[in-house]
Sequence to fold (117 residues):
Amino acid sequence: MRADIKALKLPKGFKISVRTESFSGGGAIRICVMAVPEGFNLIESLSDGLCQRRTLTPAAKRLLASLKAIHSAYQYDDSDIMTDYFHCRYYGDAEYHYELLDQEQASRPSLLACSKW
Fold:
């Protein structure tokens, strides 16, 4: 996965963590965006006329979609929730680190006015 992330050739300033975790029910691989270059916005405010809400910017969504595609490329999932049978290669996901989102929100006062995600 790390090699695939490097193959994305992201601009300088991105820091992406790939961590593994083992536990009694299996294991997990977590991809987390820890830092982005200056000027790369993660959050935008949208208004539908009745209320404002925060959402990821299109560029942030594209990056996350690419990371999730890499994460799922090595996965198989033969689980059947109806019979409570879980059989997969690993658990986990790709996400933005919560502190990164909090930092951007704090640095842009216009986002603090939005009460919904």
